[in-house]
Write a structure and sequence with these properties.
This is Citrate synthase. The protein is mainly alpha-helical. It has 17 helices and 3 strands. It binds carboxymethyl coenzyme *A (CMC). Carboxymethyl coenzyme *A binds next to loops.
């Protein structure tokens, strides 16, 4: 029984070889295919980064145009899929809808997918990247009771998403440049993060040769938890619960109390023992966005977040454990300023992370070393014993 290595949470297990994303958690470094995250976040477009993650190199202008054309040719949803979506309860959480509807794509594209054929794997990846914003926006429209909008293929990825969210059949929506820029940046920062829980889930599901749409639905389910992608929603709940700068110290004490389940949401990371490089970029943009959208201003929340960060970063408990703000700490404040409601925050994460999920799935499927993922266990149950008839128990 002692033969297997016991590694709960896979703290010390490398489950695969990968050439997609590199993290140095001690130094706070994050590279996509070798390119530093800050350069990509400030200089590239989301689909350019998607191409990079999926294919391994930055695209030429021609390759990018072709890729954008391929993606936009898959943005529509089958009408039956919309009917399926409309069956959800009116106040269903958009993550529940996303999980179900993306999983149902496997019923729409089942016969056409041969997971052993690279061409079909590629088409599935394109379909997923293209349809995810359409499904996400449709989940929102269902929630607010408005008609689902068709995608606009003349718009860029993020602008089209904002259009599908906020336009109605009666009124166009012109996303401002800063809103589009902020979304582009957030999507790039969330696009991949090597073997996190949801990506590992996608790989494990896919290792059996399962349909890619079902595998991505499994990834969405894993992302939903508050310890993972659900943290961005939990951060805003927490900031509102704290309510005022004067209460920050009390909540920091609560987070340190081992008898209290309260944790500082958006703080800490399995890999980063240094400031999360994504959080650093988001923090800056947060200030810019809130200046630009004074109407939707969440500056009291930002002020609270900054104060919380300051107190925690100077507290022995957090310093000793190397707990810093992570990607989710400031992202919710930006989403809210853009008019995106809280229950959509994790959905936004899922839209962006789809690129990482499909990149990892494709990498795994083309890896000759790929075999079914099948961890073992350390059994500590009963030894062998004889069945006792119910009358004698
Ligand atoms: N507040 C208070 N204490 C914390 C926190 C926190 N947010 N995070 C970790 N700790 C403590 C923890 O109690 C433990 O203390 P001790 O050594 O005394 O037992 C120590 O720090 C190590 O924590 P851990 O739980 O063993 O670390 P982990 O690698 O298993 O968990 C984590 C990482 C991200 C799940 C955790 O830090 C956490 O729950 N953070 C809050 C949720 C969050 O922000 N999640 C988003 C992660 S980044 C984006 C993403 O993955 O989607």
């Amino acid at each position: 029984a002692g033969f297997f290595t016991y590694d709960p949470g896979f703290m010390a297990t490398a489950s695969c070889h990968s050439a997609i994303t590199f993290i140095d958690g001690e130094k706070g470094v994050l590279l996509y295919r070798g390119y530093p995250i800050d350069q990509l976040a400030t200089k590239a477009s989301f689909l350019e980064v998607a191409y990079l993650l999926v294919y391994g190199e930055l695209p030429s202008e021609e390759a990018l145009n072709h890729f954008e054309h391929l993606i936009t040719s898959h943005t529509m949803l089958n009408e039956n899929l919309k009917r399926f979506l409309s069956g959800f309860h009116y106040d269903a959480h958009p993550m529940a809808i996303l999980c179900g509807v993306v999983g149902s794509l496997s019923a729409f594209y089942h016969e056409s997918i041969d997971v052993n054929d690279p061409r079909y794997r590629e088409v599935s990846a394109h379909r997923l990247i293209a349809k995810m914003p359409t499904i996400a926006a449709a989940a929102y429209k269902h929630f607010v009771g408005e008609p689902i909008m068709y995608p606009r293929n003349d718009l860029r990825y993020g602008a089209n998403f904002l259009h599908m969210m906020f336009a109605t059949p009666c009124e166009d929506y012109e996303p401002g440049l800063l809103a589009e820029k902020a979304l582009n940046l957030l999507f790039i920062l969330h696009a991949d993060h090597e073997q996190n829980a949801s990506t590992s889930t996608v790989r494990l599901a896919g290792s059996s040769g399962a349909n890619p749409f079902a595998c991505i639905a499994a990834g969405i389910a894993s992302l939903w938890g508050p310890a993972h992608g659900g943290a961005n929603e939990a951060v805003l709940d927490m900031l509102e619960q704290i309510g005022h700068v004067k209460n920050v110290a009390k909540y920091v004490d609560k987070a340190k109390d081992k008898d209290d389940p309260f944790r500082l949401m958006g703080f800490g990371h399995r890999v980063y023992k240094h400031y999360d490089p994504r959080a650093k970029i988001i923090r800056e943009v947060c200030h810019q966005v809130l200046e630009e959208f004074p109407g939707a201003s969440d500056s009291p929340l930002l002020e609270l977040a900054v104060k919380l960060e300051e107190i925690a970063l100077n507290d022995e408990y957090f310093v000793e454990r190397k707990l810093y703000p992570n990607v989710d700490f400031y992202s919710g404040i930006i989403y809210r300023a853009l008019g995106i409601p809280r229950n959509m925050f994790t959905v936004m994460f899922a839209v962006a992370r789809t690129v990482g999920w499909v990149s990892h799935w494709m990498e795994m499927m083309s890896d000759p070393a790929n075999r079914i993922g099948r961890p073992r266990q350390i059994y500590h149950g009963q030894g062998v014993r004889d069945y006792v008839p119910i009358s004698k128990r």
